[in-house]
Structures are given as structure tokens and as C-alpha cells.
Amino acid sequence: SWNTLLPESITSSFFHSHFAKMTKGSAGGRGKSGKKAVSRSNKAGLQFPVGRIARYLKKGKYAERVGAGAPVYLAAVMEYLAAEVLELAGNAARDNKKNRIIPRHIQLAI
């Protein structure tokens, strides 16, 4: 047999990396593989919801089609702007000796 020609460590690691999914009852990678879903926001390292922004872009009829990168880029821009405004609003709150940001602090920041 072919596996007698290779060391045990190689064959076992090869088996587990390539065939482990198939032995768990799924038909060659189809069906449930036990993987947890990872959101597009997590993949991009963002706090803003990429999926929701994509839905709004599609539903808003801004264009017939929406590219895959467009909602990610828009979410990143929105997150950056929000962080900038919050930073300045926090500074305004601290200047007024307050621990909580109120609408006036946001207005001063803008």
C-alpha cells in the first residue's frame, strides 16, 4: 500500500488535513462542515455592518448592480468618519468636564 512508503507522521497529518471532512458524514465537503459563519464585517476588521450596508445599497436602487467591495469600502469610510466625530466630541465633553457626550458636544465637534 502507498502509506507504508511514507512515515506515519506525514500520512496521518495528510489524512487529517485532506480527508477529515469527508469522514464526518458529509458527502465530499457538501452539507454541514461544522464551520462557524464569519461576517464580512469581521473579515474586513470593521465594526460597521457590511451586510446591512450592502442590503441598503441594493434596496435603494442607486444602481442596477452593486460590487462586492463597495459595501466594505463604504462601511470603512462611515466607520472612520464616525470615529473622527466621536473623538472630537469626546474632547469637547472633556473640555466641559463631562463624562458623557451630549448632542451639543457633537455639534461642537462638527
Automatic annotation (TrEMBL):
This is Histone H2A. The keyword Nucleotide-binding does not apply. The keyword Transcription does not apply. One of its GO terms (molecular function) is DNA binding. Pfam families: Histone. Residues 32-110 form the Core Histone H2A/H2B/H3 domain. Transmembrane segments: none annotated. Belongs to the histone H2A family. It is found in: Chromosome; Nucleus. Gene3D superfamilies: Histone, subunit A (1.10.20.10). PANTHER family: HISTONE H2A (PTHR23430). CDD domains: HFD_H2A. It comes from the Eukaryota. InterPro entries: H2A/H2B/H3, Histone-fold, Histone_H2A, Histone_H2A_CS. One of its GO terms (cellular component) is nucleus. The nucleosome is a histone octamer containing two molecules each of H2A, H2B, H3 and H4 assembled in one H3-H4 heterotetramer and two H2A-H2B heterodimers. The octamer wraps approximately 147 bp of DNA. PROSITE patterns: HISTONE_H2A. Keywords: Chromosome, DNA-binding, Nucleosome core, Nucleus.
